[in-house]
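Researcher: Please predict.
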Amino acid sequence: MHHFSDTSLAAEVTRIGRELIRRMIDRLRREGAVPVEVDTDGIYFVPPPGLNTAEEAAALVARVSETLPEGIRLEMDGTYAAMFSYKRKNYALLDETGQMIIKGSGLRSRGMEKYLREFLSSMLRLLLEGKGHDIQGLYHEYVQKLENHNMDIAQLAKTETLSESEETYRQKVKSRKRNRSAIHELAIASGREYRAGDQISYYVTGKGKSVRVYDNCRFASGYDPKNPDENVEYYKAKLLDLLKKFDEFLPNKISNEGQ
């Protein structure tokens, strides 16, 4: 694909890298450590019993480094009070100062509404702090806010970018080359001139959790808090769906509650 490319050499580099990772993992396990997350950036592991200080952890890393070929050295990135590993390359860390670091699109997707991102962040902190039993209360707190219309519309709204012109969108929908979308339908119904690349913020209306969004959406800027019309069941269902993704990590099952 590129000038001077050497696929066989690239494969060999990958093979050597994997072998080095395996050697490091094996040595850590022999030392009594438990690897948690492994990727090309490094290895996160639970230290062996009795290893309590950063200096002792650094000494362990140095011992592992001594087993590697000349010219390759390991560095300790830091120590953390807790880690939550959701899936490969998706994890959250809690450092010694209480700051939380979230990595991976599965835990920090910009495609989620703000209320879902905030709920997820709060849930991760509870898990990292060993307070998983408090997640049930957090979930019902969010449900109650939704039912009482106590969330600002900015928490519920989505902001998306128009991917194509109105005419192109119409043609693709007519020829069934794409599905209808909320932002394009709103742009057309508004009568204003929108172009590809413009952003639109909207929220979902209607009744029931299974509404067709493109038929039940309105501009966030037109929301009237005195006459709330957001689809509470829809937003509650999205909250529950998010919670379900973490069922196996929760100390008490609450997926079927609150609906």
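Model: Helices lie at 7-30, 54-65, 114-128, 135-147, 153-156, 166-174, 182-190, 232-244.
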